[in-house]
Amino acid sequence: MIISTIGTGFIVDRFIEATKQVEGVEIHGVHSRTKTRAKLFAEGHGIGNYFTDVEEMLADDQYDTVYIASPNNLHYKYARQALEHGKHVICEKPFTSNKRELQALIELSREKGLFLFEAVTGIHLPHYKVLKQHLHRVGDLKVIQANYSQYSSRYDALKDGEVPNVFNLEYSGGALADLNIYNLHFVIGLLGRPEDVSYFPNKFENGIDTSGVCVMEYEGSIATCIGSKDTESENSILIQGDQGYIKVNGSANIINSIEIRTDGHDEKIDLGQHENNMVSEVEDFKEIYDNDDYQSASGWLDHSINVMETFEKARESANILYPADKE
Ligand SMILES: NC(=O)c1ccc[n+]([C@@H]2O[C@H](COP(=O)([O-])OP(=O)(O)OC[C@H]3O[C@@H](n4cnc5c(N)ncnc54)[C@H](OP(=O)(O)O)[C@@H]3O)[C@@H](O)[C@H]2O)c1
Which one of 118, 148, 238, 281 is CB 3.0 to 4.6 Å from 124, fit for a cystine? Predict the structure, then answer.
């Protein structure tokens, strides 16, 4: 798997470092809209090629996969372009702005026989996979409480009059899209698509959600997901059933350990993990790629569609609409 990247934020640094820990994955080139930044970014990672023009980058046949970490509203455009040029795609979360866009990408990837992956860390972590195996021990699952709160320096910028992309509706931003989406992935990975969803946001004056609570209703159980960029908190997840509960230490994208309490008995599972939480997803993508395992890839896409539908319904319930929704 040979990859070129779009975007020069810290997440691309982390992704590139993660690929170095997975055998058989290489980075061919990087893209930035600015030549100086593209060159510096490539040199900083010891990468030989850099591009300022996406079309030119996609026309290069020396690699086969594109990793996209642009602002959210551009994921669809860049992923579509990449697929049209015959490249596999690894796209950052949230996959797209809405379900319509994601469905179009999935159809195109199937037509072209290409892989389309969502780069969302939590659901690929070994602790998450182990948690799924132990879930039955809580009995009938009744309640999930998930909290992912991280005060953002970009919230200070917002209060100072700037509008960073992550707090801009034009860029498909907001706390639900940026942080709470991990909780949605976490819960939907366990319980599937909810029957109903409502989102209760704190909105800034430009209409963007800077924090909020998403309530997902299932038959017999309910999940409350907090995602906040305007407050700090201890991040954890509690999964409560009628026979016990599981506590996840850490946020939905960095699961440090799991504690299971049933019948007054405590058990802690701590497998240790990669310092770079993106390594596990790259390992999963590489395995699917090596085995031409379109069935597993399709399973991940079914999950992503459920998340995207829930995300869109949650936004609609709170009247958080993106330009892409009106197209
Ligand atoms: N998985 C994770 O843990 C994680 C963490 C953080 C972010 N993310 C995701 O990664 C993506 C990028 O996040 P970010 O915080 O870096 O976003 P950002 O600050 O909006 O940065 C966007 C990046 O996209 C590039 N870009 C390409 N075309 C652009 C355009 N037309 N307009 C503006 N920028 C353009 C910019 O690079 P140049 O200016 O050099 O072209 C810039 O580095 C988001 O989707 C976010 O949700 C994931």
Answer: 281
